[in-house]
Amino acid sequence: MVHFGHMLHQRGYVAATDGNLSVRLDDERIMVTPTCMSKSMLRTSDMVVVDLEGRRLAGNRDVSSELAMHLLIYRLRADVKGIVHAHPPTATGFAAAGLPLNQPLVCEVVIGLGSIPLAKYGTPGTPELSDALEPLIPQYDAILMSNHGVVAYADTLHHAYMKMETVEHFAQIALVTHLLGRQQPLEGEDLEKLKLARSRYQSTGAIQPCSIVAGNDHGRLQTRPTPLRLENAIRTRGKDFRSQLKANS
Ligand SMILES: [Zn+2]
């Protein structure tokens, strides 16, 4: 949580004391970041442990004011073990413009996240916010919160953080298409193949936001998203896809 808090700050996804993170420790305990602290200054000793009702079990600081949102996600999604909430500027710009990120513009995003819906506005720290998110939580792994920010969650905190990065990166790409005045969304059979691949990856638990491979010409680590695996999967399962598409049509 300290590491990914620092990452959120470094990448400019939060300002001042914005944002919060949590992990599910076991069936009864959640560890959450404290309120009123810059995510760039977090230390392990700052964390707060609460039960599923939000009662503090350990830690000296007050818990994040967005605790109710975290508890709601853990209640509705048994598979979720980590949650990241932040205000990345481009994705939050879409949320402030009332625009969901639901157009299938980039194949990896369709596979990894499906689409990113926009929840209606709710005052932070109140049940309004939870009410706005509740209908979307079961079927989406990242949600734009109107006039507020983004929440992303996954089977680990690392994967939840990666989803946050994917949302912001996709928002930047979507913004460029808006600036260019032209969008060319995936459609038809191409889109169906990606949806099918997504459902297969989900059912095998094989969706990983990315794998890190060592070394490019500059000796830097390079993150490489899923396209190769995706392309291979589509190529090797092409027959399956086509027969399923036919069966579905
Ligand atoms: Zn917030």
Characterization of this structure:
The protein is of the alpha+beta class and 249 residues long. 42% of the residues lie in helices and 16% in strands. It has helices spanning 2-10, 67-76, 89-97, 107-113, 127-133, 157-180, 188-204, 227-236, 238-248; strands spanning 20-24, 29-32, 48-51, 56-58, 82-86, 118-119, 142-145, 149-154, 211-213, 222-224. Strands 4-3-2-1-5-8-7-6 form an 8-stranded mixed sheet, sandwiched between helices. α3 (89-97) crosses α6 (157-180) and α4 runs parallel beside α7. Mean pLDDT is 86; it is low at 206-249. Zinc ion binds at residues 18, 85, 87, 124, 148-149.
- Fraction in beta strands: 15-25%
Order of helices and strands: HEEEEHEHHEHEEHHEEHH
**Cα-atom Rg, whole angstroms?**
19 Å
Q: Calculate the terminal CA-CA distance, rounded to whole Å.
A: 46 Å
Give the oligomer, counting copies of the same chain as homo and different chains as hetero.
single chain
> What is the helical fraction, as a range of percent?
40-55%
**Count of runs of 4 or more consecutive helical residues:** 9
